[in-house]
């Protein structure tokens, strides 16, 4: 909150000129100093410069200029506040409440923040207000905006565009200028050539990255969409003109969405591969018109995403509603969208709180202290010899720069470049390269189960029909298709499959279940009702391989989509040729059973379920209910909670989920490397434990302790029970509780729990969580929200690097090294993306991370010892009033140091993971001792050599030679030190010849004597 002062600004400009730009550069690095020097504090409402500070642990400052937009001039005579008089609480109305119709805003990392006049704060714009309820969104935006409203929103919010525009070698430029001015031409030319090559390669690399990023967003800006406006109706428009509140008409053709939008009418099938890494079609349903005061996101809780079409995803198919084509209101545009978030994460990567970079700074500070000691030494030597002050200062600064090689900071990134290239060859892509070094410190990897450890698809193993509160004999699908009956009808209809491009597409589990019936699917049909509305539906009919069925087929009229939080899905169906409607439900057995009449659930339900889950099978329950619907009833108005009640349990579907071939070897490799592995899944607990045992995540002979926690009920407080899964059956038979003794140093036990237990522990037994999480291996029935909470708690607990392989978007973003298994090169889901659909990428990433980290440390140590060696040598030569020659420095800095630094990181990663991690600290005792002993050895050898040479006959020092007071023996220096100043304009060859002549004269005189 500052206001620029003209007098201060003038003084700063003068400072820029007198300092030759050095002050301007300092202010660029320290924006808070710039604001302090140019501005004075004032009220935020009147500020023209805003100083922002990040809220993370780095707390970096950013200087932003406040921009004013004159809406009165843009809208001619029309007043802007008249356009939105019906919605006084909207962000845009609060922004234009300033007298004169002026809007003030700042731009931060591509996001615009406008000044909220009543709220006295800058607020983010570019999206619809989250405070809108479901009912308000339908009422306000269903009919679209007027052209003038669209123009106003575009000026205030900005266009729906993703613009991508394309190290400043300050130290090198300064030193090169100094060296050239002092006649150090040879080495300066060499450094200039190397710098040009380095800059050229850097520019080429940046150009390649910019082109890829530009191509990623370019098509987004050129999409033709159909927009509904008042009163014109539908018309074509370019996507760059879209604003939040616009209504899109989705009329069936494929479309790459240029914005985030909320579906209002109809349904859509989209490919969200860019978001989730899974190219499985996802069905989007319209936002319900719930008349309540809750914001629309809170009303839908974790499932609000099923109503949102995300930018960058592809609309594969649309289904019209009874009121016309599918409609969606624009929710967010530009960099506010899901795709914009991906681009922003590439342009502005989150700073990593990695200890290595902090300790590198402290290490450099230590070298600077050594350089300061050298500065005092040089000043004392040259001052005591009566040298001019300018020469003394120059030589003192020279020794200071020798102690701190300027390439040391870059040494920490040398291994990253090579590691990233090697990862790319293995089809592992990275949008945050600084995380590669962090992968070298991974000590824990978390996996999802289905699609990660196990195959994406499931194989049908058997079905157990249920009739009259008892289970019928198991039907094996290997013996033939399932006989006709309610269970077969449920399998044929209760799914989210779609008939697209001549084939059935959708969730792999649904696809296997449908194929097991032998039925066939037809393309989506539509039917006009008596009210004039049209309803779209899918028809399924018995196929050639299906069992004999007394039915022509079934039509799927409406779908309540699967929800990770609800653990179920259901469909409303109608048998062809009949007027009877039915509802079929499919989901987790425990959940489906809770919606059924207790009389229809067999008493042996839990025992039957556990007998299959304990063998690693995935079990799905199916249920049915007859619905009484009138012809006038709209399926969209059905209340889910009302229709999903009083069901009849039809049976259990048993599916086999095979491990991927790479899973067990990879987990064994990680275990041998002492890297802990954890499974976090939404599947059944017993199934997950069995998969953990079969995959080797839980070694043979280790015990699994089941943790179960219950919420308080009446006078009973919350409780926790512990059971060893292997002993549960025997203890039940003996009617006693097992006694569990856990040694603090033992690692032969593993905790397993479900999401509900985790929530209870987090709420009522938080002191127990650290012990449980550190030794927990299986976390089942976890919803996406519970996974995110679990990961947040784990990060706070461990405070160490961990890898994470999880489909939930939030958890992947939070992890130090989240990996998405996807066919795309870049995914908004995670920093790393592997195009190989198995977990083999995990050890590859850890190997390359370790190689990068070790290489960076080695180069860092080498440059440090090289700089200190040169420092010692230069200090000894100062005693003789001499320095190294040009070509000596060329050999040291280019032929030896540069070549070694460039080739040291080329070494491939070791093919096997060692059972220990590389050191993660520069200030570790082993590294410091190594550097210290090497420097001590170098110091002793150089001093010995220096004294030994001085004792040799025929070796003369400058003090023994009669020279002009303004001239002494001179040789030039290397890249990190400016040359010794010359007071006379002698050429080097002339100086050397004169010194040789004087030496010969003195030697001849000694012989004559």
Q: Can you put this structure into words, describing what you see?
A:
The chain is α+β, with helices and mostly antiparallel strands and 1009 residues long. The chain has five domains: 2-131, no CATH class; 220-347, Calcium-transporting ATPase, cytoplasmic transduction domain A (Distorted Sandwich), CATH 2.70.150.10; 355-427 and 848-1008, no CATH class; 443-454 and 660-815, Rossmann fold, CATH 3.40.50; 461-653, Calcium-transporting ATPase, cytoplasmic domain N, CATH 3.40.1110. Helix content is 39%, strand content 21%. The protein has 32 helices and 41 strands. Strands 21, 22, 23, 26, 27, 28, 29, 30, 31, 32 and 33 form an eleven-stranded antiparallel β-sheet that branches. A ten-stranded mixed β-sheet has the order 19-41-40-39-20-34-38-37-35-36. Helix 29 packs antiparallel against helix 30 (886-904) and helix 29 packs parallel to helix 31 (925-950). The radius of gyration is 36 Å and the shape is globular. The N and C termini lie far apart (84 Å). Residues 164-171, 732-736, 805-810 and 962-1009 have low confidence and may be disordered. Residues 969-995 are annotated as: Disordered. It is a multi-pass membrane protein. Residues 4-116 form the P5B-type ATPase N-terminal domain. Keywords: ATP-binding, Magnesium, Membrane, Metal-binding, Nucleotide-binding, Translocase, Transmembrane, Transmembrane helix.
